[in-house]
């Protein structure tokens, strides 16, 4: 659920709707409303409503991937509102309030009044302006109807969901603002400059001002964040009397910097291994300060503000530190915070050479576009299918495998799926690996490889769309990805040992990694035939047969009747049992 809190004070929670690319983006309005003291899905028809001390919480049934708009009819005092998408509204006047960021994909939204003992707020409308285009299920190429009304309703809901998953170019808006005074960032983890990911032993200088709450920046970050992310530096400012009512001063005290590792924003406790340092000065809102952060490949980290030292530590000595201490830098803002950055310079700590310089200011569209593209926060440059409507700025290759098959039966957005696969294959490393996850705001071609699971997805794409031209033009790259899998077959036990395992573990010789490789080999055989590469097709077919035989002789658990995640002494499975056809 998406929640919004108001500083007369409210909290709202939102869901993503679904869309295709031929209809005009629409406003989504609530289909139901409940006002009370707790969340309640038993809603009535939407109407003008008031939140006060007796009924501080509204539950709204919504469907959209969008920016939220609230229309305030009347208020009796200042109020506040906050969302899962990291926004709090300070309601000081009547009229329309709009979100800074796009909301995520959620079915329900809530609005909570925070200062329940000080006033009330009345809303005449709550709307979500969709960032993508939508068609009713009856207008889609795919169709389903049965004599079961519940199944029909599920199908219609699914078609809306899959429309939200596939976005035409620029349907996902930029998440930074750029102007002549710098960049404005709100409620976002550090966005990393792709020009800095190979830096080490550098001093990072920048000017920053707290617009609201505090600052958030990071060093040692890759483009595709590790599960632990990079090193986060979270500064909480002086927090004046006008600060939001929901700020937790125990978790994030005034005038402090927290150093830790992490990548999510719900609250300060989600930073792993948090270390706190007091500031030598008061960092006030709307006042610019000069920051200097030094970072060495061995993990030595220091921070100074206006030349006054704040901290000097070795993060390598911290427990739960990132595996790699090399990576780029980026800028963000914590939950409910808003910050401005400019005049960024990185210099070599050894010889003072300027390694990077960008004022982050703009007086033209081209300058703004270049900054947004460098930091991966631009509107999606090409059509893309992210991992559902929730992860709205990230494409996940494994989940694309499911999306391809669903799209083929519903929206048939082949042009968007094709550009998604094109962007993914451009991330390929010489080993054959392609990016498991890739932020949609960067240009295609950045080398950020992880594990490779794209062949099954491209198989279903070519099979459904008939786009053999895409396959043939990229066959050399997809073929290399298949060869990466084959290279992971262990010469001793004949099973597949993936370096980091498949999605749910079992990477060393178990059914999860070995059986998914059989599936890849089977699909790669058909792809090779479609690409008119007979030699590759025969080679992959033979490898698949050999691997299947090994799996059946070493992984079948006769007692439990399934293929095991580890090698066991066993009998062969019943005739016709196959680790792929039996869904492993």
From TrEMBL:
| TM helices/strands, residue ranges | none
Q: Which Gene3D superfamilies match?
A: 1.50.10.10
Q: Which domain of life is it from?
A: Eukaryota
Alpha-L-rhamnosidase six-hairpin glycosidase domain: residues covered: 373-570
Tell me where the signal peptide lies: 1-21
Listed under GO biological process in this entry are: carbohydrate metabolic process
A Gene Ontology molecular function term of the record: hydrolase activity
The alphabetical list of record keywords is: Hydrolase, Signal
The answer to keyword Signal applying to this record is: yes
Any keyword Hydrolase? yes
What is the designated name of this protein? Answer: Glycoside hydrolase family 78 protein
Organism of origin? Gonapodya prolifera (strain JEL478) (Monoblepharis prolifera)
Q: What is the lineage of its organism?
A: Eukaryota, Fungi, Fungi incertae sedis, Chytridiomycota, Chytridiomycota incertae sedis
